[in-house]
Amino acid sequence: MLQTVRTAADTVDVLEVGSTGVRALEPLVLVTIEGRTAYYPRPSPSQTRTIVERAESGSVGADDAEWVVEHAADVETLPIPSDGPLAVGTRRVLGGCGWVDPEGGAAATSSAAALARDDPEAALERLSEIGLLGRGRGDASQDAPVTEDVSVARETAGDPVVVVNTNESDRRNETDRTLLGGSPAAVLDGAFAVAELVGAAPGDIVVYTNEDDDLVRHRARRAAATVTDALEAGTSAGNPDSPQVVAGPDEYIAGEFTMALEALEGNDRLEARLRPPGPARHGLYGRPTIVQTPRTLAQIRAALLEPDAFDAADADPGTRLVTVTGDVETPATVELPTGSSLSAVRDAVDAPDRVKMACVGGQLGGFTRSLEHTATAPALTNADLGTEGVVELFGTDRCVLATAGERVRFASEENCGRCFPGREGSKQLLSLLREIYDGNYEDDMIRELTRVMDTSSLCDFGESTARSVETAVDRFETELEAHAAGRCPSGACEVSQS
DSSP assignment of 17-71, as one string? Predict the structure, then answer.
């Protein structure tokens, strides 16, 4: 598609951008002239040539455009149509995705890193007053104030490190991949700001990606050099090293923040580290280390540059990114204000007519019958749902026992093996779920095992596995009882009672 556009273009500028997050619209061609942008989702090669020819004649918004948006000529974020999937939620940290040059773009405009460099104490106080929480499974401060680890790292002896943890092998979750692939300069600006707060050099910022994400890694490298040059322009610091961009294994456990450090140190066998001490005190090669996901770093940048957009009175200030997937034709990544309901995500995708259940939290999320939950960490945690940034929607033909069982089997095969609850508990849990098909439903034993795993696992792998089963049992108990009686209510399973 890009080659077709460039071949057809003569006088117009052609820019390749990242994904908007709404995959159903892609490939997406935008034509922008003097404060007017037309959207053309999924055009054919011949349609693309026609679009380019019209653009060269100064025409924007012919009858075949899906949307036409009027906006300021110098707008720095994607102009949003009044309806359709892009209008779902807001686009604060997603604003550059699908609009800016992913290999530069936002780096030369407002800089959170420059603000943090000029007055680090004021920047840290601003983040502390807002009470910003970590956003992802790969954050050392997931669902906890980001300033706690920053303060510890500032006080700890040694040369600090900042790790941008983008290694997510769960392809249900496109949040961090969308951000780093579409607006890497903004993510890196947030990483540079954190580095300024803890006293880390640019060369001690490490962007840790999944080995399969070649395009994301390429864009991150180009953007890292651009952001470094922009930050150092006009200073006497010389030409510092750019952040390192590296690849990690395509394994689910490799995204857990302590196992990310194990992978970065080159260990072949990844195991969760004992805590305390956390990475902020003893991290990469024993150095004080901040580990944050792109989602969190983008929020940090926004909080430093636009503090008035964050309400410190909220339990979870800011926005949360969510990938909507499951029984949908095409997934979409949207951004929800944390006071809004998860139910809004249905408008971003072609959801089933009847949604029987949702799994909130990704590979090892929690099951629910309702999406009427506020998109905040406290609300989701209190509902035993995950905050990892995934909402899977399932239709009436999905079996909760089979779906939960698949996840427990994954946990039994993919856990790091270091702690007994995660290693043996997942195997025992899988066995107990299989016995339901044979007519033996040990409800009390399942609940006790999930309680033990939840309270004694070394990392959140075992806790999340327990959550998946516990919520399935709590909210779909009659279905499990039906399986024990020899019947699958959804008709998805072959059940034979022995």
Answer: ----SBGGG-SEEEEE-SSEEEEEES--HHHHHHHHHHHHTT----TT-SEEEE-
| CA-angle at 264, arms to 193 and 133, nearest 5° | 40
Q: Which fold has domain 400-484?
A: de novo design (two linked rop proteins) (1.20.1440)
- DSSP H or E run through 421: helix 420-437
Whether CATH 3.10.20.600 fits 319-395: yes
Where are the domain boundaries for CATH 1.20.1440.230 in the chain?
A: 400-484
Residue 43 preceded by cis peptide, ω within 30:
no
In the DSSP assignment, the letter for residue 284 is: G
What amino acid is encoded at 333 in this protein?
T
User: What's the gap between Cα 435 and its chain centre?
Assistant: 35
Taking the C-alpha atoms of residue 183 and residue 240, their distance in angstroms, rounded to an integer, is 22
- Which regions of the chain carry the CATH code 3.10.20.600? 319-395
Count the Cβ atoms, other than its own, within 10 Å of residue 176. Answer: 33
Q: Where are the beta strands (DSSP E) in 286-432?
A: 289-292, 319-326, 332-337, 355-360, 366-368, 390-395
pLDDT in tens, the chain (498 residues): 666 666 666 677 888 999 999 999 999 999 998 899 999 999 998 888 888 888 888 877 767 899 999 999 989 899 999 999 999 999 999 999 999 999 765 544 569 999 999 999 999 999 999 999 999 899 999 999 999 999 999 999 999 999 999 999 999 999 999 999 999 999 999 999 999 999 999 999 999 999 999 999 999 999 998 888 887 765 545 556 889 999 999 999 999 999 999 999 999 899 999 999 999 999 999 999 999 999 999 999 999 999 999 999 999 999 999 999 999 999 999 999 988 999 999 999 999 889 999 999 999 999 999 999 999 999 999 999 999 999 999 999 999 999 999 999 999 999 999 999 999 999 999 999 999 999 999 999 999 999 999 999 999 899 999 999 999 999 999 999 999 999 999 999 976 554
Contacts of 111 (CB under 8 A, 6+ apart): 189, 192, 230, 231
What is the C-alpha R_g of the chain? 24
Contact residues for 204 (Cβ-Cβ < 8 A; gap 6+): 159, 160, 161, 162, 195
**Residues 57-82, buried b or exposed e (16+ Cβ, 10 A)?**
eeebbeeebebebeeeeeeebbbbee
- Asked whether the beta carbons of 416 and 271 are under 8 A apart, the reply is yes
- Return the CATH number of the domain spanning residue range 105-308: 3.40.50.11540
